[in-house]
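Entry for the shared binder. Reason: the reviewer on the internal report wants the predicted structure included alongside the sequence.
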Amino acid sequence: MPFQTTVKASLNPAVEGDRASGNPLFFAVAGEGTLITAPEGVIVGRFAWVDNALKLVHSHNVSGNKPDGFVMNETQASIDFGAEASMVIPAGRPIALYRGGDFFAKVTGSTPATKGAAVYANNETGEIVIGSAPAGATGTGSMGATLTAATATDNTHFTASAVTGLISVGETITGTGFAAGTTIIAQTSGTAGGAGVYQISQAHTISGTPTATTFGDKLNVTAATGSFDVGNIVTGTGIPAGAAILQQISGTPGAAGVYQLDQPATAYAASTALTVAAGILTDWTVSLPAAVGELCVISKGGN
C-alpha cells in the first residue's frame, strides 16, 4: 500500500451503494442464506442478477432480464492484502439484493443524471447508465450445424461431412436414425467442430447418408462490429429470446469466436444477423441529479 499523500478537509457525503434516505427498503425475497456471491465476486453499488438454477449472484446479466436487485453498501466488501480499497464482495458470501429504496450510485456513460430520468443497467458490469442503453454490437453468427451423417466404427459414432456451422460437444443432434435426446459426447477425429467422427450418447440406426442438425447453447460468431461481452443480450433469427452471453470459449476477445449463452436453442439456427444489447431498462429512476462520474441517487418503490 503506497504512503498516504492527501488529506481531505471533510468526509465524502457518501460512497457507491450507500443508503440515501430513511425511506423503507425492499428486499428481493429469496430465503435466508439462499443468495450467494458468484466465483468472480459481486460489486457493491451496482445492479446484480441471480442465476436461478444455482442461486448465485452476478454483477453481469445472466438471465436476459432486468436486474434482480441493487447491491447496497453494508461494508461487506473485502480488501485484499496490499490493496487500498475494494468494492468487491468475495465469492461464496451470503448477499442481500434490494428491489426498492433510495441509494447512491455512480453515473457512467456520457449522459448526466437528471431528476426523473430513466435508469439503465449495463449488462456487462451492473453499472447505472442514464437515459438510454449503452451502445452494443452487431455481427453474424449461428447456433449449431447442419451436416450429412454416415455410419462410423460402431453405432455410437457417426461421420459428419458437408458441415455448415459448428458442431459442439454437448449439443443435441436430430435427424433420421438418431434417437430423440441424443447428444454429442466427443469428437474423436477430423476438423474441430467440422467434418470428422463424433461419439454420441445413444446408439444410432443411420442408413445411407441422411441430413442431420445439431443445436445447443454455443453461439458461433463469424463477424462482429463492436464488442460481444459477458452479460450482453443477443438477438437474431433462431436465437433464444432474451439469451445472454455467459462466457467466451474461443476466438478474439469480444469479436469473432465461440460464445456460450445462458439458454440453448431449440433447433439449428442458421447464419443470421446478430444484435447485441449492452444494457437494459430498469424500473429505477433518478431522484437526485449528478454529473457523469459523480454520485446520484436512484430510487424505486418496492414490488
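Summary line for the report: Residues 26-127+282-300 form one domain.
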